[in-house]
């Protein structure tokens, strides 16, 4: 297998891993949103029950001494307090989750763009490392290193070192 093939496989694996991370994160966010949705439904139900109770109190006052307007004001104040304690923090949390998801999407998009640009760079620069290796091989051979040492230092095959030295008429 060539280096380009290995690089392409590694890039494909990296892209798959990124997509898996995005999918897992999306599943987690969906679970949280489901919990928030259930909470909102429960609050809507409680609001309905309170409105029904309020309508019953205003339609048929059971205690003639209580002022209906005062009772209505008291119940509305209680409902507003419940909303401020339950619904508003929930909405704030949902907005935070939305911001986190958008930041995550932006980050993943920029990572994909960087990977694409690196892939393009790798395809354009595939021929240049061999010329730099040739210069290093020749200079190390001139310093007295043998083929095996040069191959080990450059992490290339001994055959490649031998070929470069033969082409340079040093062997």
Task: Compute the number of helices.
Answer: 5
The geometry reads as rod-shaped
- Mean pLDDT, to the nearest integer, reads 87
Number of domains: 2
Class per helix and strand makeup: mainly alpha
Please tally the β strands and state the result. Answer: 0
Distance between the termini: 29 Å
Q: Which regions have little confidence, pLDDT < 50, spanning 5+ residues?
A: none
Largest sheet: none
The whole-angstrom Rg is 35 Å
Bin the strand percentage: under 5%
SSE topology string:
HHHHH
In percent, how helical is the residue content?
A: over 70%
Q: How would you characterize this protein structure?
A:
The structure is a single chain. The chain contains 5 helices and no strands. It has about 170 residues and is mainly alpha-helical. It folds into 2 domains: about 120 residues; about 40 residues. The two termini are about 30 Å apart.
TL;DR of this structure?
The mean pLDDT is 87. The protein contains five helices and no strands.
Task: Considering the chains and any ligands shown, give keywords for the structure.
86% helix; 171 residues; single chain; 2 domains; 5 helices; mainly alpha; 0% strand; rod-shaped
Write the topology of this structure:
Blueprint: H1 3-59, H2 68-124, H3 128-142, H4 147-154, H5 158-167
Helix pairs in contact: 1-2, 3-4, 4-5
